[in-house]
């Protein structure tokens, strides 16, 4: 993945923000996040049309929130991407929707022309999928503010599964609280169950623009709580790689 930047404003819809105080894990009903990264073969218009007019409406009929994004600064010579997010209320709903989608006659009838056209001429070479469960601290995603123009997805890899568990704890117990203080606005956090990079976690944040994003992160790295937290022995060696992509919401995105 590459680091890119994003500047755009589109409508955003979501559930009410979660409480800041972590609930007892056994009492939580945590969301499930399916994040797909499509690598395009050419122009993105056919895929955008399929997402906006066919696939996303099918998910909406099942009350699933969807988001769609692209890197804001794609590099010359690199293939374009689409990042797609599906938010499920729980794992049972994820399984149910996966089973029912292909028996949805409205979807199948609307999608067949796209399938027929793109089988001999694919619009994307492949897509990667990350399936994750929301963190205890934020079991339900937070709605981005109307003033947001930039979203950032980050994926943190850990050296082993135990270190990954400690990194999740670091966010739940300490790090997200500092984010809230300095203006790193949380949308969602996910413990990755399955994906191309493992073990890992991922999270999505939003900002008014690139300047406010950079200012917020400067405050974060200089914040005394963060300086204290990152030095705690229980959080040592929890992440070996941190990948970041700045994202531009598509016009048909709900996030």
Question: Can you walk through the features of this model?
Answer:
It is a single chain. This protein is an alpha+beta fold. Helix content is about 35%, strand content about 25%. It contains six helices and eight strands, in the order E-H-E-E-H-H-E-E-H-E-E-H-H-E. Strands 1-3-2-8-5-7-6-4 form an eight-stranded antiparallel beta barrel, surrounded by four helices. Helix 1 (about 45-60) packs antiparallel against helix 3.
The tally of helices reads: 6
| Rg calc | 18 Å
General form: globular
* Mean pLDDT, all residues: 89
Strand content: 25-35%
Instruction: Identify low-pLDDT runs.
Output: 1-26
Task: Quickly list its features.
33% helix, alpha+beta, 255 residues, 8-stranded antiparallel beta barrel
Short précis:
By secondary structure, the protein is of the alpha+beta class.
Describe the secondary-structure layout:
Elements (H helix, E strand, L loop, with lengths): L31 E9 L4 H16 L4 E7 L9 E8 L2 H11 L3 H14 L5 E11 L15 E8 L3 H22 L2 E10 L5 E8 L2 H13 L1 H7 L10 E9 L6
Antiparallel strand pairs: 1-3, 1-4, 2-3, 2-8, 4-6, 5-7, 5-8, 6-7
Helix pairs in contact: 1-3
């Amino acid at each position: 993945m590459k680091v890119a930047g994003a500047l755009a404003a589109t409508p955003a819809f979501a559930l009410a923000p979660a409480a800041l105080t972590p609930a007892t894990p056994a009492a939580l009903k945590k969301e499930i996040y399916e994040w797909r990264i499509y690598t395009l073969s050419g122009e993105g218009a056919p895929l955008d049309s399929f997402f906006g007019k066919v696939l996303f409406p099918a998910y909406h009929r099942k009350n699933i929130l969807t988001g769609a994004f692209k890197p804001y600064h794609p590099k010359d010579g690199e293939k374009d991407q689409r990042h797609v997010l599906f938010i499920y209320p729980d794992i049972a709903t994820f399984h149910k929707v996966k089973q029912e989608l292909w028996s949805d006659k409205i979807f199948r009838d609307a999608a067949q022309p796209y399938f027929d056209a793109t089988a001999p001429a694919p619009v994307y070479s492949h897509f990667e999928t990350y399936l994750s469960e929301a963190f205890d601290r934020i079991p339900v995603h937070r709605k981005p503010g109307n003033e947001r123009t930039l979203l950032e997805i980050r994926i943190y890899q850990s050296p082993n599964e135990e270190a990954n568990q400690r990194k999740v704890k670091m966010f739940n117990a300490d790090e997200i609280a500092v984010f809230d203080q300095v203006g790193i606005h949380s949308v969602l956090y996910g413990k990755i169950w399955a994906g191309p990079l493992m073990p890992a976690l991922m999270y999505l944040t939003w900002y008014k623009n690139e300047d406010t994003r950079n200012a917020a992160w400067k405050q974060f790295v200089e914040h005394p709580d963060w300086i204290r937290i990152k030095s705690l022995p229980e959080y040592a060696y929890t992440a070996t790689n941190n990948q970041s992509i700045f994202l531009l919401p598509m016009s048909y995105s709900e996030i």
